[in-house]
Design brief:
This protein is mainly beta. It has helices at residues 19-25, 30-39, 117-123, 130-138; strands at residues 7-13, 54-60, 66-74, 77-82, 96-97, 102-113, 151-162, 165-177, 184-189, 206-209, 228-231, 251-254, 260-262, 267-274, 280-285, 291-300, 309-310, 315-319, 329-333. Helix content is 10%, strand content 37%.
């Protein structure tokens, strides 16, 4: 349809908008949005899209009527509907989920974490998307303070490719070998789909250690994926620059300049700007009197501003060495 001069193509993500508000802002009349909803009735619930869902639609430039609509909730889950331009009524039978060919590729690699996880993943020739997956798998199973340069890791994962294009990656198992101590093995557990719902008493899907234990996951996450703690909270620390005893009211995470920094939990940005000795700083209010701060940043995520709502693990900036520092790192304060 892109080659048809009489057709206009629009696409985007729903974000925080609903079906009607998003598509009308994109140029569709309300009655055309209604036709889309009717076409998907009984096939897929389309009226309440989530922020990451994407849409593409084609409309007749002259009449303004919908010609085709596509909804993608993931690279593997895509629905399409085609409409008869000569009729004001939707063709219900045209709406369907696409039958996509999905190839599952098993990948495995061994790596050494000397700097940060992202660089170690890249040096092992693994896809960058696996960084978050590894962080999710190990969260709660290890103490970030126990990570040191030279930690070895083995990763087994499955990549999903749709029609020859990379879609997503899922970690199946990880072995973490510290420089000292006992190796840790973590496995992804998933319920057997063939088990009757009423008979399911198995644990919830997730990452479990070799003893079948899964840690409690609270509201807050580390702001850097699997980062090393280089300096802990210490009210009697000797300041490395001023050479006097000054409280270290936070935790320092070692990482190279430019490493993405993420919000530790959902909240509202108080400020994103110059924090004096803290350098470039982001402050986030999480409610209940809890505020987190992220200091010495090289820069901020595009569009980040005061009053903005952010989700847990949303990108907010980059590791740097602005302010009073001796090298690049993230100073994280609660």
């Amino acid at each position: 349809l892109k080659d048809d001069p009489n057709i206009e193509i629009s696409q985007g993500n729903f974000g925080k908008g609903g079906l009607v508000s998003t598509l009308t802002q994109a140029g569709l009349a309300r009655n055309e949005v209604r036709r889309i909803a009717q076409a998907f009735d009984g096939i897929h619930r389309i009226t309440r899209p989530i922020a990451t869902d994407s849409y593409t639609f084609a409309k007749d430039k002259t009449k303004g009527t919908i010609v085709a609509f596509e909804l993608a909730t993931s690279p593997l889950d895509v629905w399409q509907a085609k409409f008869d331009p000569s009729s004001d009524q939707e063709a219900r039978s045209s709406a369907k989920k696409l039958d996509l060919y999905v190839e599952h590729r098993r990948v495995a690699s061994a790596l050494v974490i000397n700097a940060d996880l992202a660089k170690a993943i890249a040096s092992a020739n693994m896809r960058p998307e696996i960084v978050d997956a590894v962080d999710d798998a190990l969260e709660g199973h290890i103490d970030p303070g126990s990570l040191r340069a030279g930690v070895r890791m083995r990763v087994v994962a499955t990549e999903d490719w749709v029609d020859g294009s990379f879609a997503r990656v899922k970690v199946e198992a990880i072995e973490l070998v510290p420089r000292q101590g006992t190796p840790l093995r973590v496995y992804f557990y998933e319920r057997d789909a063939s088990v009757e719902a009423s008979a399911r008493r198995a644990p919830a899907p997730g990452f479990y250690d070799a003893k079948g234990k899964q840690p409690y996951r609270g509201q807050f996450r580390t702001p850097l994926p699997l980062a090393r703690v280089t300096s802990r909270f210490n009210p009697k620390r000797m300041h490395p620059v001023l050479k006097v005893v000054m409280p270290h009211n936070g935790v320092d995470y070692g990482a190279t300049t430019g490493t993405p920094v993420y919000a530790s939990a959902a909240g509202t940005v108080i400020t994103a700007g110059n924090g004096g000795p803290c350098g470039n700083m982001v402050e986030i209010d999480h409610g209940g009197g809890i505020v987190t701060a992220y200091c010495h940043l090289k820069g901020f995520a595009q569009g980040l501003r005061s009053g903005q709502k952010v989700e847990a693990r949303q990108h907010i900036g980059y590791v740097g060495q602005t302010g009073r520092v001796t090298g690049p790192h993230l100073h994280f304060v609660v």
